[in-house]
Specification:
This protein is mainly beta. The protein has a single domain, classed as Single-stranded right-handed beta-helix, Pectin lyase-like (Pectate Lyase C-like), CATH 2.160.20. Helices cover about 5% and strands about 50% of the residues. The chain has three helices and 35 strands. The chain has a 33-stranded mixed sheet that branches. The chain has a two-stranded antiparallel sheet with strand order 12-13. The longest helix has 11 residues. The N and C termini lie far apart (about 70 Å).
């Protein structure tokens, strides 16, 4: 059945709370099976909208679903953490939500506006004391955000769903995560435009968590945190479910944090993922992987296993750090690292960056089987680093200055093939970085077919 939300009492004046009318329209449309709910032009202030089986929610051009600025208008996820209400309150409310549903589609030419600024503290200056406006104008390597007001909602939240599609809509101003499938199978995120303020806290665009058979394509994203994050938070899901068979292609990505992030949040495995045909620009980190036992999240006791991940045909421009791959035990964590990162391939890349990359671990043999092939990396020295103190090994957030353009440490079976690295210093600084390439404690390392020793450097 096809219904129009206006026929169920939706006003669309931006003042009235229209989510009860939309929920009534959804119930009527799907009462006898498949239903389509039309959202016509207008501004619809909404609390939670509950999506059901066999539903298409279609936003027409000129339609805006705008999140309420009152958290009391939102429903709360009852399933995460086995129903424990006290944990992670900031990520339990939602604007659009589906739980144990199948065949759900959100589409159309309209806009979903999360009203994110209602859930941030506009008077809270950034963590190092720099005012917000100054932080906004800093270089991409500088990441500072506003303080959140908790709790706050997720824009689109899918819990243990099958066959979910979000297509064509424009999503803006998310209070926290934007689209978040958790424990889902068969997800299509296509032709989305996402615009979240870069100073918004945790305003990730697409977070794929313990989900499988996911295709992300043709998206244009500017996020206040990670653009695309693959996670495996088994503690939230209550099940050791892999995050696997993920394809990301034909996207434009810009981020105040990571264009692509794998790992950190969870102990479940992430595997069999392919990223291709991506244009990354104005991002703190291009490709970021964290597999570790952290200090702050003691519920992550093993580290994230990551394996069989391929990146190809990617261009990066004005990125703070192209590659950051860190595995092992974060110093100070009581939990020993028990995972591994293996089977990583990076090929056909053109990169313009302002700082160096790191692939390595402080634990032995945590990273293995890494290939970089057909990569041109141009590092343009930046005034932001002119007074920075270099470190031997970075912290887990890639926020410290590395003196080498590409640094490898404790990686087994590493291959570099046709990797060209060029450094352009600032005027008056002939050698701002230590080396184009430096490596240490490697086992079975080759470059362009030549076997190299375990330790070395190339100017």
């Amino acid at each position: 059945m096809r219904v129009n939300i206006r026929d169920f009492g939706a006003i669309g004046d931006g003042v009235a709370l229209d989510s009860p009318a939309i929920n009534a329209a959804i119930a009527a449309a799907t009462a006898d099976g498949y239903g389509k709910v039309i959202v016509p032009p207008g501004i619809y202030r909404c609390g939670s909208i509950d999506l059901v089986d066999n539903l298409t929610l279609q936003l027409e051009a000129g339609a805006v679903i705008r999140g309420s600025r009152d958290i009391n208008d939102y429903h709360e996820d009852r399933y995460a953490f086995n129903g424990k209400a006290a944990e992670r309150q900031t990520l339990r409310h939602y604007l659009l939500g589906a739980f144990h549903r199948r065949n759900v589609i959100i589409t159309g030419d309209g806009v979903i506006d999360g009203s994110g600024d209602a859930f941030w503290d506009p008077n809270h200056i950034c963590t190092d004391g720099k005012p917000l406006e100054a932080a906004k104008s800093s270089c991409v390597a500088y990441y500072r955000v506003l303080k959140s007001v908790n709790p706050r909602p997720v824009v689109a939240y899918f819990w243990r769903c099958q066959d979910v599609t979000v297509r064509q809509v424009r999503i803006v101003n998310s209070p926290s995560y934007t689209v978040w499938p958790v424990g889902c199978d068969g997800v299509r995120l296509d032709n989305l435009t996402i615009r979240n303020p870069r100073h918004g806290p945790n305003t990730d665009a697409l977070d794929v968590d313990c989900s499988s058979n996911v295709i992300i394509s043709n998206c244009d994203i500017d996020a206040g945190d990670d653009c695309i994050a693959l996670k495996s938070d088994t503690s939230r899901l209550g099940e050791d479910k892999p995050c696997e068979r993920i394809v990301v292609t034909n996207c434009i990505l810009s981020s105040s944090a990571c264009a692509i992030r794998l790992g950190y949040e969870g102990d479940g495995i992430i595997r069999d993922c392919a990223f291709s045909n991506l244009a990354i620009h104005n991002a703190k980190n291009g490709i970021d992987m964290l597999s570790l036992t952290p200090v702050k999240r003691l519920d992550f006791k093993r580290g994230t296993p990551i394996e069989s991940i391929a990146f190809s045909n990617i261009v990066m421009r004005n990125v703070g750090r192209p590659f950051f791959i860190w595995a092992g035990t974060e110093p100070g964590s009581p939990n020993p690292y028990q995972a591994q990162v293996r089977g990583l391939t990076f090929s056909a890349m053109e990169i313009h960056t302002i700082s160096g990359s790191f692939i390595g671990s402080l634990d032995g043999a945590a990273i293995t089987d890494v290939t970089l092939r057909d990569i041109r990396l141009h590092l343009q020295d930046h005034v932001y680093f002119q007074d920075a103190v270099p470190v031997e090994y970075p912290n887990i957030w890639a926020s410290s200055f590395m003196p080498d353009a590409l640094r490898l440490h404790r990686v087994d079976n590493a291959v570099l093939d046709q990797v060209a690295i060029r450094i352009t210093p600032l005027p008056g600084r002939s050698a701002p970085y230590g080396h184009r390439l430096r490596w240490s404690q490697l086992n079975n390392f080759s470059r362009d077919g030549t076997q190299l020793p375990a330790n070395g450097a190339m100017l």
